[in-house]
């Protein structure tokens, strides 16, 4: 597995001091003027690699889009579900004349946020991430479904220079000999630089004006004054539902790990109550009237973990269902940051269902064309206590190794 994080060069919007961010950061914390700003990208982060100043070509500057994906890929090839971790970038155009991936090392080059004022002409992506990703899981066996849980999804624009009817790599300065006249024609028709770019918004509670808390990589900002949790919707904060789960053995050393609880509507498979899940997964549980009437919730971790642990946690918590006691008040300390967005959790439901289906022959065909719509969700903080190298929730019998969490934080 490759562990690489790009770095981003950005000056502080308040005082202008140079700051280096990591691509997993969501907060810009200026050490000089103490400003704290939340990074609000337009849909996803868009970066560019500036052309090298060493190559000395005075041509016209263009940028080629590459999708950057870091996360887990899950492949359902009946009767198996396989997974792997992906850390990659791939061209967002149908062009065989250009490099299929950026190929530069994050250690040697730094990214910059694309802004409306960025010089150069930007070629719009013509392929979506969903269109380019499946080529990483292609093999002889035809898969039924491919799922991707993205922890970092962004666009990186790499520079090209058009000079004297030849196209040059904007970093290495070498001519791209495979590029033909028709591509150069395409280039000359590109005009617009992206109009929207990243916004920097204050980390102040939109409801009460208090400073919100959150670590650098956090997707959920917390206001401890009015007890509210906020995530980005578009380029502003939107309040989300949240709860703290109460266990019998909580004390001041309790650590709280975030999980998404989702209620979904399924079209294509009979799945609306917990009893339906017991039947589909063939769980050793008696179906009582209560269970028959109890709504079906799916849980998935709201933090980054490796794909094997992701699968285990999704299954364990969805099957075990957390205890009934909860509090609307958020814990005052030891909250582990949420780093996996709710948008990715929908794909997580699909994968979780895939692994739980007991009668694969009967139910796997239903997965094809299955539609899942999220009806309701909330962020739940679950109590764990630390024992040896593990975080344990004894009420559910769930353990997560510290090393797995530390690993997740580096992703
Ligand atoms: Zn500053
Ligand atoms: Zn507040």
Description:
The structure is a single chain. The strands form five sheets. Strands 5, 6, 7, 8, 9, 10 and 11 form a seven-stranded mixed β-sheet that branches. The mean pLDDT is 89. This protein has helices spanning 129-132, 181-188, 274-281, 289-293, 307-320, 342-356, 360-367, 402-410; strands at residues 7-11, 18-22, 27-29, 36-40, 45-48, 60-77, 80-91, 112-113, 121-122, 145-163, 166-169, 199-202, 221-223, 228-233, 236-240, 242-245, 255-267, 298-301, 326-327, 371-387, 390-393, 398-401. The protein is globular and about 75 Å long. It has two domains: 7-188, no CATH class; 241-410, no CATH class. The termini are close together. Helix content is 17%, strand content 35%. With 411 residues, it is of the alpha+beta class. It is built from eight helices and 22 strands. Residues 205, 207-208, 210, 223, 225-226, 228 line the site of one zinc ion. One zinc ion binds at residues 205, 207-208, 210, 223, 225-226, 228.
Question: In summary, what is this structure?
Answer:
The chain has helices at 129-132, 181-188, 274-281, 289-293, 307-320, 342-356, 360-367, 402-410, and strands at residues 7-11, 18-22, 27-29, 36-40, 45-48, 60-77, 80-91, 112-113, 121-122, 145-163, 166-169, 199-202, 221-223, 228-233, 236-240, 242-245, 255-267, 298-301, 326-327, 371-387, 390-393, 398-401. With 411 residues, it is an alpha+beta fold. It starts with 6 loop residues before the first strand and ends with a helix.
């Amino acid at each position: 597995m490759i562990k690489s994080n790009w770095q981003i060069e950005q000056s502080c919007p308040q005082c202008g001091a140079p700051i280096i961010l990591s691509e997993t950061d969501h907060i810009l914390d200026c050490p000089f003027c103490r400003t704290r700003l939340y990074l609000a990208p337009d849909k996803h982060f868009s970066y560019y690699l500036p052309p090298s100043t060493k190559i000395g070509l005075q041509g016209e500057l263009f940028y080629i889009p590459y999708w950057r994906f870091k996360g887990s890929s899950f492949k359902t090839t009946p009767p198996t579900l396989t997974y792997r971790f992906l850390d990659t970038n791939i061209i967002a155009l149908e062009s065989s004349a250009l490099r299929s991936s950026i190929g530069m090392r994050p250690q040697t080059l730094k990214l910059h946020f694309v802004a409306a004022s960025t010089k150069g002409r930007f070629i719009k992506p013509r392929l979506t991430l969903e269109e380019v990703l499946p080529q990483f899981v292609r093999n002889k066996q035809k898969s039924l479904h491919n799922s991707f849980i993205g922890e970092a999804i962004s666009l990186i624009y790499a520079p090209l220079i058009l000079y004297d009817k030849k196209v040059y790599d904007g970093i290495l300065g070498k001519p791209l000999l495979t590029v033909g006249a028709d591509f150069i024609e395409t280039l000359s028709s590109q005009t617009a630089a992206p109009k929207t770019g990243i916004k920097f918004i204050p980390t102040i509670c939109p409801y009460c004006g208090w400073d919100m808390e959150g670590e650098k990589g956090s997707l959920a900002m917390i206001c401890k004054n009015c007890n509210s949790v906020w995530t980005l919707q578009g380029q502003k904060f939107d309040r989300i539902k949240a709860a703290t789960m109460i266990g019998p053995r909580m004390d001041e050393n309790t650590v709280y790990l975030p999980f998404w609880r989702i209620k979904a509507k399924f079209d294509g498979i009979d799945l609306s109550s917990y009893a339906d899940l017991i039947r589909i997964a063939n769980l050793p549980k008696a179906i009582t009237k209560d269970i028959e009437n109890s709504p079906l919730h799916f849980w998935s971790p709201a933090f980054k973990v490796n794909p094997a642990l992701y699968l285990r946690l999704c299954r364990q918590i969805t099957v075990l269902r957390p205890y009934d006691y909860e509090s609307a008040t958020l814990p005052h300390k030891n909250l582990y940051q949420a780093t996996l967005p709710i948008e990715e959790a929908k794909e997580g439901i699909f994968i979780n269902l895939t692994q739980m289906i007991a009668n694969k022959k009967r139910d796997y065909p239903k997965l094809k064309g299955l539609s899942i719509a999220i009806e309701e969700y909330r962020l739940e903080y679950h109590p764990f206590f630390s024992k040896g190298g593990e975080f344990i929730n004894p009420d559910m019998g769930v353990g997560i190794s510290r090393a797995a969490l530390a690993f997740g934080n580096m992703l």
